[in-house]
Amino acid sequence: MSNVLGIDIGGSGIKGAPVDLEAGDFAADRLRIETPSKSTPKNVVKVCAEIIENFADQVGDGPVGITLPAPVVHGKVPFIANLDQEWKGLEAEKYFQDKLGRPVTIVNDADAAGVAETHFGAAKGVNGLVILTTLGTGIGSALILNGLLVPNSELGHLEIDGKDAEKEAASSVKDRLGLSYKEWAPRLQRYYSHVEMLFSPDLFVVGGGVSRDHAKFMPLLSLKTPMVPAQLRNKAGIIGAAWLAQDRVVHPDPDPVILESFAGGPGAEDTVKGKHSKKK
User: Tens digit of pLDDT for each residue in 198-238?
Assistant: First the structure.
């Protein structure tokens, strides 16, 4: 298998590297380019093209996986917070494919990290439900059920005690308020115990830069669910995006099936067979 390019688009930097999907690691040092001050799709795709050109010898004309700091629903961005508002409503996957001239898979950044940790990191070989959270400016999340991604969970935006969870428990809140790990831990306890109650996961994986200090806060939490730090750290988004891009080549997305009836109504037989019902 040739190397597959992964690109991680963030509010401050756009990073890319070819990924060896057998080793689960970069095949070359990553390239980081500042995110354009006007971070429109047009400007960002130019940076992605530059990264692709830089690694042309390693990745050829193969697929590219790209992360965004936003939900990505069937290739479309419903809303955006950390990039230009021109992204809102954009058919991003089609736009990037047209501009870059190659297969492109676009995914939420936390989802990409979750996929990487599942195949190459802290959640490898874990059955059942794994919830990865990234503690940073906000709280990103990924749900992995028996190795399969359930995309766009956005568990950082759960309402807990009448407040947006990430505004109370993200590591940026700890830094902004000058909290010690001991002072921050009750906020994490409230968050993770609520997520645990809702989902009864088999494993929590905690990522984000603060996970380097996991020994300072994880022992302070009382949960039924095992909790471990992420292993791939800032490589996870790029590696996960590359894995998903290659998986799309091997297993193309099926055409969406519109369920006309769950109870045997018109089109139900065709729906069960995975076909669209067509009226003549």
Answer: 999 999 999 998 999 999 999 999 999 999 999 998 999 99
User: Cα–Cα distance between 150 and 89 in angstroms, integer?
Assistant: 21
CA triple 128-214-108, angle to 5 deg: 55
- Indicate the residue type of 43: N
Tally of CA atoms within 13 A in the half-sphere of 140 that contains its CB: 24
Q: For the whole model, what pTM was predicted?
A: 0.88
- For residue 223, the SS3 value is coil
Q: What is d(CA 96, CA 118) in angstroms, rounded to the nearest whole number?
A: 26
DSSP 37: S
Q: Report CA dihedral (236, 170, 123, 199) to the nearest 10 degrees.
A: -140
Question: What own/partner pairs with CB < 8 Å and gap ≥ 24 does 81-85 have?
Answer: 82/10, 82/11, 82/137, 83/9, 83/11, 83/35, 83/39, 83/44, 84/38, 84/39, 84/40, 84/41
